[in-house]
Amino acid sequence: MNIRPRINRWTASRRNLINGGTILSSLVQPHFVVAGEQIDEPIRGMPGIHQQSVDVLLKTVEEDASYGLKAVMLFGVVAHEHKDARASYAHDTSSHLHQAIYALKKAHGDDLVVMTDVCLCTATEHGHCGLVHDREIINDASVNVLVNIALSHAKAGADYVCASDMMDGRIDSIRSAFEKNELTGSGILAYSVKYASSFYGPFRHAAQSSPGFGDRTTHQMDVRSGYEEAILEANLDESEGADIIMVKPGLPYLDVLRKVADSVVRPVAVYNVSGEYSMVMNAADDEASRQHMVVEVLTAFKRAGANVVVSYHAREAARKRWVN
Ligand code: PBG
């Protein structure tokens, strides 16, 4: 079975994220999780966003939740000594990312939607999103690793695994693996329409995931490509069993977001990426102007058809009650 419509209804927090209708209910806060204890390290270019160890992460998420921010997206930052050619650490169940999933689920259970990034780039020594052979990213062997990562996250308790790699056929393979493992309630968010954008710079610094050679243009979408390709990718992931379809980045692609939202049946998410965040943080003179810019940006995503909005602005917007 490819499609399990119950997945998006499984918990009250999933239903609220997708169908809540308000800006606050739609928000997902990204987090960069590092190994160690009491680490709360500011990230260059992303004021207000820190790399955090699991203990600090737990406190941050608890406070966010008290302001109604009840969904997180976790990125595991992998230390240099754990990186290898096969991204082994990404599916090592003793990793700090897996500990974070267990700990958040233990603390919040069904009251929090835990999403996890599934890609190879943070754990490969070359920083590419797939396995590399003769300087080429090979597709199908990379999908096998992605499946292992997704399975390890789902078994740890993630609500949604979020495939951000842009390999062909990975949603189908992850869904089949979930079926075989009786993970009938585990969701898949597909980064379906993900461009080879220049707006990911601050993130790659935060996640230590820059490619050591070349770029991501052989798998992420050409920024010049038309709506047809966006709709093809979205429809493919939907038919392969994705529970949520994502468009990324957000602001330069609001037109694509609207087209995709009109073309698919499943809920749609948008990723307001690191470079977009930095632009707003740099452009606003003071808190009042930042508030207006953030609310305007988040409103635009809703107008363009997003059910779910992943944004680094989520925490400040929720805690200062700029949105409700
Ligand atoms: C991993 C991944 C990236 C982002 C999310 N998942 C970086 C990339 O594709 O290089 C970017 C997020 C952001 O810029 O905020 N593949």
Question: Care to describe what's here?
Answer:
The radius of gyration is 18 Å and the shape is globular. The strands form 2 sheets. The chain has an 8-stranded parallel barrel, surrounded by 9 helices. Helix 5 crosses helix 6 (170-180). It has a single domain (5-319), classed as Alpha-Beta Barrel (TIM Barrel). The chain has 324 residues and is an alpha/beta fold. The relative contact order is 0.15. The chain has helices spanning 12-19, 23-26, 54-66, 96-108, 139-156, 170-180, 201-207, 227-240, 254-263, 274-283, 287-303, 314-319; strands spanning 27-33, 40-42, 50-52, 71-76, 113-118, 131-133, 136-138, 160-163, 187-194, 244-248, 268-272, 308-311. It has 12 helices and 12 strands. It is 40% helix and 18% strand. Ligand PBG is lined by residues 117, 119, 121, 129, 164, 200, 203-204, 216, 273-274. Residues 117, 119, 121, 129, 164, 200, 203-204, 216, 273-274 line the site of ligand PBG.
Number of domains: 1
> What's the CATH C level?
Alpha Beta
The bound ligands are:
ligand PBG
The third-level CATH topology is TIM Barrel
How many strands, what sense, and barrel or not for the largest sheet?
8 strands, parallel, barrel
Give the tally of β-strands: 12
Q: Taking all residues together, what is the mean pLDDT?
A: 96
Spans where pLDDT lies below 50 across 5 or more residues: none
- Measured by DSSP, the beta-strand proportion falls in 15-25%
Number of helices: 12
Overall CATH architecture? Alpha-Beta Barrel
What gap, in angstroms, lies between the N and C termini? 37 Å
What oligomeric state is this? single chain
Order of helices and strands: HHEEEHEHEEEHEHEHHEHEHHEH
**Order of strands across the widest beta sheet?**
1-4-5-8-9-10-11-12
User: Helicity range of the residues?
Assistant: 40-55%
Structural class: alpha/beta
Radius of gyration: 18 Å
User: Per the principal axes of the C-alpha atoms, what is the gross shape?
Assistant: globular
The CATH superfamily title: Aldolase class I
